[in-house]
Amino acid sequence: MRAKVQRLQAMPLFPFEGELTMKSLGPLLEAELVRDGESPDRPCHSCGGDERVLWRNDRWKVTRMSPSANPVGVFLETVEHCDVEHFDDELAAEYGVLTRHLEAAIRSLDSVGRVHIHRWGDGSAHFHVWFQGRPARQLELYGWGNVLWPQILPPLPTDVLDANHASVIATFARAVCGEVIEPA
Ligand SMILES: [Zn+2]
Q1: Could you list the residue range(s) of the whole structural domain that residue 84 is in?
Q2: How far apart are CA 123 and CA 46, in angstroms?
Q3: How far is the CA of 124 from the centre of ligand 1 (A)?
Q4: Among 68, 121, 152, 162, which residue's CB has the most CB atoms within a 10 Å radius?
Q5: Into how many domains does the chain fold?
């Protein structure tokens, strides 16, 4: 076990050094956790979060993430509460096409080296996919390093992120139509 921790720690993707103590896993939960939008005591932040919306059409929207060290951070999410197991072939096809064009729009920025695309699905009743534009040429933020470092590093300035997101959404909307939402 110690050797595994040391190997992890030696990787540039791992943000910490020094003596580390591994936690023990807790017991299994009695049930899966309830997600936002699935219960009155877990209200949906997406349905009421219009200020985060950058683009939308009838069934999909692109929303802004909290600022981070990544030049771009947006979600592609469904307008309705649903998950991938509820997709019909038409919605699945739309997801593929939107993913292709959103990835290309983010990758078109010089400050982005590659686009990381994640679906966790554990927090919200909306199907939502994370699109992170990873900073170009910054080794520590490659791969899984990008899950850890941006939680610790100071975020990029708001005006830089706003300009990046505006550029991405303009490029994306030229390819897929839909409605670009101007900032309030
Ligand atoms: Zn909702």
Answers
A1: 44-180
A2: 11
A3: 8
A4: 68
A5: 1
Task: Report if residue 32 sits inside a domain.
Answer: no
Provide the whole-model pTM: 0.95
Tell me how far the alpha carbon of residue 83 lies from the centroid of ligand 1, in angstroms.
12
Q: Ligand 1: distance of its center to the CA of 94 in Å? A: 20
Phi, psi of 125 (to 5 degrees): -75, -10
Ligand 1 centroid vs 41 CA: distance in angstroms? 13
Residue 30 belongs to some domain of the structure: no
- The CATH number covering residue 129 comes to 3.30.428.10
Ligand 1 centroid distance, CA of 42 (Å) = 10
Residues measured by CB to lie within 5 Å of ligand 1, the ion: 37, 44, 46-47
Structure tokens at 9: 């720690």
Encode 27-65: b = buried (16+ Cβ within 10 Å), e = exposed.
eeeeeeeebbbeeeeeeeebeeeeebbbbbeeebbbbbb
CA–centroid distance, residue 118 to ligand 1 (Å): 19
